[in-house]
Amino acid sequence: MSRLSLPLLLSKSFVALWLVSSCPPAPALDREVGLANIHHSRWTALDGAPAQVTSMAQTPDGWLWLGTYDGLYRFDGLRFTRVELPQRGMLPRDRIYALGAERDGRLTITYAGFGMSMLHPDGRLEDLPDMGQPLGQILSTAIDVDGSIWAGAENGVHRFDGRSWQPVPFDGVPEVGGVHNMLLDQYGQMWVSDREGAWRLDRQRGRFVRIAMHGGFFAMSPDGRLWLANGGRMSLLPGAPDGRVLPPPEGFNRTEVRPAALFDRDGTLWSLGAGRELRLRYGAGSLPDAAFDAARGEGEVVASPPLSGDDPEYMLEDLEGNVWIATQHGLDRFREQRVHRSPLSGAGYYFTLARDTGGVVWAADRSNGALWRIAPGRAPQVERGQHATMVANDHRGALMLAGTHGIEVRYRGAIERIPFPPGPDGKPAALRLGGMGHDGKVLWIFSATTGLMGLVDGKWLPRSAFPLPPKINASTAGAKPGQQWLGLGDGELIFYDEGVRQVYDASAVGMASRIFAEGDVTISGTRGMGVLKDGRVQLLRAQDPDVLRNVTGMHVTPEGDRWLNGAGGAVHVRAQDWRRSMADPGLPLRYRQFGVQDGYTGKAMTEIRMPTAVADGGGRIWLVTSGGVVSIDDTPASRNRHAARVAILGAEAGGVALAAAGALALPAGSNDFGIAFTALGLRRPDGLRFEYRLDGVDRDWQDAGNRRAAWYTNVAPGAYRFQVRARNEDGVASANAASLELEIAPTLFESRPFQLACALAALALGYLLYRYRVRHLTRRVAERLRMRTAERERIARTLHDSFLQTVEALALRLDTVVRAMPDGDRARTRLEQVLDEADQAIAEGRDRLQELRMSDNVTLDCVIDDALRRLQEDHPGVMAGFEVDGSVVRLAPALAEEVAEIAREAMRNAFRHADATRIDVRLTYGRRRLALEVADDGRGIAEAVLQAGRRDGHWGLVGMRERAAQIGGQLTVDSGAGRGTRVRLAVPLA
């Protein structure tokens, strides 16, 4: 079987430099890891994996492509998706023989039988021209430094220069079966091999020269050396002619499969044995030998769990250091676990951990007294001749080792031995401790034999000698010598300091399991973890409550990060996230959890009330769990630095799936739709976290967790931009957010023309209703005015026929009496004055009568002008003006009378009360309304009067408003102290 070699671009282009610098290598699998710390996952047909995988390749964007006899598939770590290739004639596109990934993102596809294509990143499929004489089955391909394509087939090697295929001669004849392996190395040398030999291209002669007399498949070690693998035998091939040593081409192990052997980036050799078993040989990539047997030496056989099939054939190492193996029944992945098991055998119940001042972690096994020394960067080793059942640190950080009869304290090279309390024979008792600690003043121990005891000034004292409360469930030393924090079984948290006791309610966390006094005082229990803030214990929030339950270990890094060991496994909290939750415990704690998928076994130990998280001097954190002692490497090199690229897969609206190719147009009525996306991280795809945003709908980024779809409802038609970004399991963010432009077409009822037509129809209907309302009100006003006019006429007749006639008769009779009186008589003089006043009253009465009976021949402007003239005659010191705008319209008498009365009242108020020097009256006839304005420059009306609507004892303003309301008009009064008054009346005309 042969596979495509990745082309080596020798030009030092910016793109190449960027690819190398932006994708730092992820950790692979080394000797220190061991098979026990390799996580194995497998996918079969039950998981949706295709069968008969014939080839694999990973393109730079992160997609893992699978070639099968059932077509082309791609895999994002969770889902297998079949990619439909367009058919061309009789070319069997469903039967794929080999795949190869190029640096520019293209995927080379060769088909079983004949034919070859290039799949471009934008989805275009380009078929390469056939030869004049068909090549037959293409067994291997490579792309040269000049971009030309080389193909190894059943009838030799051919080169395609962009126009035609040219055969390339050999020194010696390759096997009849054809050239099944081709490679362009980092020096620009072209290599080919078959089952009987290996050749290198002599570019000056234009032909291949035989280098090896036996065949095989090519493999390259991390130092750049090229090897030929044949039946488990590894043979070194010559390097560059000038002696240069360069690293392997970028992505060498991911661009095509390695059928026989693969060196991972740590130099471990993965090979398939004669029995098709998978064999690992650590350090093989650095062997100085020119040849060696992969099946011998320091190796391990992967025997459990079984592979997806019993016939593994092809291997590939991806961008993140995962090793993939294809079988005829599925796919297998091997990756290093972040949480490593240790060689310390036994359940965690028996182990305690402590660190000395030199950065060495010590572990004591209570079951057999073994003392383990765990130095940074080295495997744990048992200290021969040492016996310890428990280890701990005192307040200074000194190492305390509890033996059978006493405690050994090691601090900065000095050793102090403290015997246990004496037994009945006066000698130190043989004790098996269940707890040990030092608060700076008292050394505390606990055993089933003695109970709780404390060493003060060299003397062991029983519990009764100390003022301790009952039911102590957890304790830890405070920041100063003698200080103690105690968690009681009844939910109380007690702080002792120099005899002063402070009590806090900690019942929110349940039964206390551990108290931590490093900086913020926190306490963990069966219900979670709380922080002592503002005089009370406030419960912290987390998405998964288990991560904060029964936390019995906490390590604080120099940067302020927290590592917690609890019921949910190991939890990493960044310093800024910890400070955020300490400032506001109600905010959800942000964290990274390490569980079963990362190699963590069981849960944190709670039976022994001792710290279960200790870090060595190299940054590795050691944890005691119910499954034993495990460790996590906290150095940056252990983290996955690969930034997963985000890809938008498509959308779904109305049950119809739409591919995300360019801008996406959703059909009309697609107000509810979903968008599917993914991120190409294959190491821990379940650990990827997504955020998305739909511009125009979402105000901020929405947290999707590990969900790979976003759903929207009731989205209005229009153009939108969808964005999504991701972070991998170690918090490394994707370089750029993926985006998708989409547009929702409106339905007929949502379209602009329809909405405009509806708006116009609504306006027209509103206008018609308005006209109808105006006419209705006008008719009602006219009816009321007719009734008022009739009433006024009746009153006028009554006044004329009775009151005025009676007054005139009385005046005549009084005049007769006056005339009979002698001239000069004082009574006559006074009666003559009364007669003059009576005449004036009769004249005024006739004027009012005239106002009550306005003639149809008299227009409103004439009435207003006459009233203004009379008022000006009575007030000669006031200038007045009257203007009429528009064409005079003859009004209904009743309407004209009301408007005239309002005008008279406004003018009378101006002349009599405003102290004005000028009064202007304007009457405007419009098409649909009549406007009257009376303005003066007087002293104005007080604000209190305007707000009340009248002055005490005066009803002029009230009357004008009532008259305006009766004729359907609107009256406004604009005035202010010292700036005059302006009265406006607007009356609609039918």
Describe this structure in words.
It contains eight helices and 70 strands. With 990 residues, the chain is an alpha+beta fold. A hairpin with a 4-residue loop joins strand 38 (433-438) and strand 39. Helix 3 runs antiparallel to helix 4 (826-852). The longest helix has 69 residues, at 752-820.
Essential attributes:
elongated, single chain, disordered N terminus, 8 helices, alpha+beta, 990 residues, 5-stranded mixed β-sheet, 70 strands
Structural class: alpha+beta
Largest sheet: 5 strands, mixed
Distance N terminus to C terminus? 98 Å
Strand order of the largest sheet: 59-65-64-61-62
What percentage of residues falls in helices of 4 or more residues? 10-25%
Radius of gyration: 50 Å
Taken from the alpha-carbon principal axes, the silhouette is: elongated
Tally the helices: what do you get?
8
- The strand count comes to 70
Mean pLDDT: 86
Please indicate the percent range of residues in DSSP E strands (runs of 2 or more): 35-45%
Runs in which pLDDT lies below 50 for 5 or more consecutive residues are: 1-28
